[in-house]
Amino acid sequence: MKKETKIFQAETKELLNLMVHSIYTNKEIFLRELISNASDAIDKLKFKALTDTQILQATENLNITISINKDDKTVEITDNGIGMTFEEVVENIGTIAKSGSKAFLKSLEDAKKNEDLNIIGQFGVGFYSAFMIADEITLLTKSPYSDNGVKWSSTGEGNYEIEEIKKENRGTSIILQLKESEIEEFLNEDNLKNLVKKYSDYVKYPILINNERVNSTKPIWKILESEVKKEDYNEFYKSNFHDWEDPMFNFTFKVQGNLEYSALLFIPKNPPYDLYTREYKRGLQLYTKNVFIMDKCEELIPQYFNFIKGLVDTDELSLNISREILQQTSQLKTIAKNLERKIISEFEKIMKNDREKYIEFWEVFGKHIKFGIHENFGLNKDKLQNLIIFKTTKDYSYSSLNEYVDRMLPDQNEIYYAIGDNIDILKNSPKVINGIKKGYEILLLTDGADEFALKAIDSYCDKKFISINDVSLETEEEKKETKELEETNKSLLSKIKDSLNNKVAEIKLNPELGDSSVSMSSKGEVSLEMEKLLSQIPGNEGVKAEKVLEINPKHPIFKRLQNANDEELKDLSDVLFCQGLLIEGFPIENPIAFVDKLNSILSK
Ligand code: ADP
Ligand code: MG
Fold it and tell me: Which of 16, 89, 98, 132 gets mutated to test ligand 1 (max ligand atoms within 8 A of its CB)?
């Protein structure tokens, strides 16, 4: 039988060092961590048993047992879950590859930079947290896929021992040799019971101390929402969905009728650490008749709600349903459809009744909704468009499209928007200033996904979206005047265009630019913002907007253009074009040449 002494990897050592010399104030959370691992292990066993019926007898009770040994000064947490093979122990317990720990280490680095070690108190750090209260930890485990068991032990100081052993029962025991200083607290049965109640009350498997079930026998989602404490929802969330922070909020549904189900859903406070990685799997936990079937059932939730955590419990599915059949059952599809509608209407309600809460949600997860609107050629836009909010020029707070349309001026036939890197830039944009002056409200788009969402929605209440850059707010009279001015300066404008080669598609005069000499807009399908966005995606660098350079005929520089000789005109045109680029947030191709030309003009 194999027996080895191994060294912890460097990251692990750092974490262990922290635990052993615990600067953590909240030591008791180790119990929550070990119980949640035990519960996960039973989940995994049950999930495997869906396809491998050998590993679990229908009659077997699955549970978590906590036992106290006063003579040895040990506490033991045992589960009959999936257990681990030798390799799995090395992989899972010897290295920090795991969610909680990795995110913890990252925050620790940030915290160290800011000398803010308080942050540590906010984290659950998984298995290793047990070293806060134990001098030595021994783990005994057996996987159904291995003939032997494994014994792992460590004092948390640099290395661990691992060996194959004889072990009959499937599952894992964690034996904690308590530190002298922790004996009083953790050898105390009542205290342990209280901790189970406090942190793990709604763990779905029985937690037994002295053969007595300590945790609630009723699943949390089967209890009336008004009767559950907020902390209980929060603790349930943290121990069930691998987060160390309370959720932003949660909601529950009890649906009756043709297809009955309950759902308990959580919106995390921050995006799960791996949400934007390929490894991330969306999905809700699925229960039938209170019994856990599987984690991350992706059929239950659409891609654009992938950040939502939670569970669905329905009586409609058979208990020993197989995984393959599960994916095809029409009940599941019906529930998913109904659930999606419910979630959307819940968000709409929050938007209406608690704007502050909605804005908090929107600022973290709004982009998911925007992508949801845009993806699949706008397939879901009708469902999602009422969830979108934008800051607007009306006091720069958020408005829904509906609210915007309600406030539109009677003569306004289109919804105006402006795009820029941030609100301050937009506030100072000559076109935005001009629009506000004329009494219009403008949506302010500062996120790359905003424009794509609007393009997908196309029109709202029969009003098309149009960039304020592409609107002329001149009166008919003024328009006529500008046309005439363009006519009299026709040859000047075409000279400017020629000297800029193919860089612009058109030169226009625009008397509505206030104090600015120029502005840039686009014509055609690709907008300036899209060009910027696409230029960052490899392979799309060549996609260019057809740029329109707009010159302010009221600006003194226009006089200079009119009086310039050919050589001066060329320099002035170049400089104005570059100014247009800069105003719109584009880089200029040759900054040195730009500065040289500008200087030569200035020194004349
Ligand atoms: P996390 O639970 O976030 O993955 P932990 O440090 O709590 O991180 O646990 C590390 C890993 O060790 C788990 O992902 C799991 O693979 C394994 N593990 C821990 N406890 C058990 C257990 N009781 N049974 C089976 N595997 C376990
Ligand atoms: Mg864990």
Answer: 98
β-pair type (443-445, 414-419): parallel
Residues 457, 480 within the same domain? no
Give the residue from 183, 216, 249 where a domain finishes: 216
Q: Which one of 447, 473, 499 terminates a domain?
A: 473
Q: Which of 92, 102, 125, 142 to mutate to test the pocket of ligand 1 (most atoms within 8 A of CB)?
A: 92
Full-prediction pTM beyond 0.90?
A: no
d(CA 391, CA 426): 11
Specify which residues 262 forms β-bridges with.
254, 313
Spell out the residues 6+ positions from residue 219 whose beta carbon is closer than 8 angstroms to its own.
Answer: 202, 204, 287, 290, 313
The answer to the question of residue 520 being in a domain is yes
Supply the residue whose CA is at minimum distance from atom 17 of ligand 1: 92
User: Does residue 151 line the site of ligand 1, with CB under 6 A?
Assistant: no
Q: pLDDT by residue (tens digit) across 298-340? A: 999 999 999 999 999 998 777 666 666 666 678 888 999 999 9
Tens of pLDDT, residues 505-540: 999 999 988 888 999 988 888 888 888 878 888 877
**Predicted confidence (pLDDT) at residue 141 exceeds the cutoff of 60:** yes
Mean pLDDT of the chain: 89
What is the spatial order of strands in the sheet that 459-460 belongs to? Answer: 398-400, 389-392, 443-445, 414-419, 463-467, 459-460
CB atoms within 10 A of CB 212: 9
Answer whether residue 362 is part of any domain.
no
Q: Residue 321 is part of which domain span?
A: 225-353
